[in-house]
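Just curious: can you write whichever protein you like plus the matching structure tokens?

***
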Amino acid sequence: MSDPAPYFRHHVFCCSNQRPPDNPRGCCASKDAQKLRNHMKARIKALKLEGIRINDAGCLDRCEFGPTLVIYPEGIWYGCRTTADIDEVVQTHLVEGGRVARLMLPPAPDPA
């Protein structure tokens, strides 16, 4: 039996987790994560892109690279700090099917 086709062509999860200000890992919320997610949603709508869903996510556990987002079904992780970064991910990844290498996060370490 094969897996069903994805419901969305792309499903983007944007971390909006908030930690206490003294947390050594920091958090995406304190780095304008909500503003960046809202910008991405607006760009998707303005470009009339279909089959793409942008969602808030709790902690994605990549805090030091934040604000972070992950795009499925590819499983590509990005650290985006500006609206220009978001625009580049939207155009290059979601529209053209490419990757924004300079914003991609390093692979997670292998579990011990």
User: Anything to note?
Assistant: Helices lie at 33-46, 83-95.
